[in-house]
Design a protein that fits this description.
The protein has about 325 residues and is of the alpha/beta class. The chain folds into two domains: about 25-45 and about 215-290, no CATH class; about 65-205 and about 295-325, 3-Layer(aba) Sandwich (Rossmann fold). It has helices at about 25-35, 50-60, 65-75, 80-85, 100-110, 120-135, 175-190, 205-215, 220-235, 295-305, and strands spanning about 5-10, 15-20, 40, 90-95, 115-120, 140-145, 165, 195-200, 245-250, 255-265, 270, 275-280, 285-290, 305-315, 320-325. A nine-stranded mixed β-sheet has the order 1-2-6-5-4-7-8-15-14, sandwiched between helices. A four-stranded mixed β-sheet has the order 3-13-10-9. Strand 1 (about 5-10) and strand 2 (about 15-20) form a beta hairpin. Helix 2 packs antiparallel against helix 9 and helix 4 crosses helix 5. The chain is globular and about 60 Å long.
Amino acid sequence: MTPESHRTARPAAVAFHDLAPAPADFGAEVLAGLGAEPKTLPCKFFYDQRGSALFQEICRLPEYYPTRTEMALMGACAADIGACAGPECVVVEYGIGSVDKARLLLRALDRPRAYVAVDISREHLLAAAETLADEFPEVAVHAVCADFTRPFGLPPEVDGARRLAFFPGSTLGNFSPAEARDFLAAIADLVGDGGGLLIGIDLKKDTAVLDAAYDDARGVTAAFNLNLLSRINRELGGTFALDAFRHEAGYNPAEGRVEMHLVSLADQTAEVHGRTFAFAAGETVHTENSYKYTVAEFQDLARGAGFTAEDAWTDPDDLFSIHCLRRVAG
């Protein structure tokens, strides 16, 4: 399917291209995850209205360094990032949370030809794209409603231009290394020979720093994790007792990842969609992974996906990294 297939009229500042992505089947995926051994729940379902608000609160916590560190690093390295990206490129952002990072990037670039935001959430996508169109009237802004974890087409208006994919926020860490390599390979195919990728990657660091970032003193991350059970209760007729589970998060050095779990505090059962699931005391439901990399480890991963490393920047405390990669010809 190409972007023009479901093109919808919007204000002239933004060209909206609706690829009509199929929504995830929340019920089916929850039932499958709770029926697995060990039990799991997909982290992509954290972000209902309440979950999204809690995540914004997490980003402001003193323990949670990634957002503010990446923003500061982008600002400090703006000139170098612009030079590495090159002039007159088309930016393709994979997912758009806050517009702040896109704003920093567009200001750093030399005469960007267009900005294409790709996201599955129509209303958020359009609001963000229109904000950027107002601020950068000289840049052609496109909003593509699509699931960026699956192949998608770009607007024909950007054909022939050099492409720079933009994937900030260390979201790649939610993928296993094998999944991350496949995802990067799909980005390499989209940008084509000579195209680039600017990506944020969280670094391996002291375990205490990681543990605090995912289990803050105020309990906001705990509320974020437990909200997934609230969503199941509300949308799927679940009977989870939230006070019978606790949040658990910590760094697993053998796997190189932070893991989040919901731990059952007693032997208990809960119903979802008419099915009953038993939980033993101490049993966990695995809700999220967040893989961390050294600079060299990530560059090796990207190389296996068809990219070569052009530059990388880290903050003074070596908490976070931003990488500029180039698609290898052939």
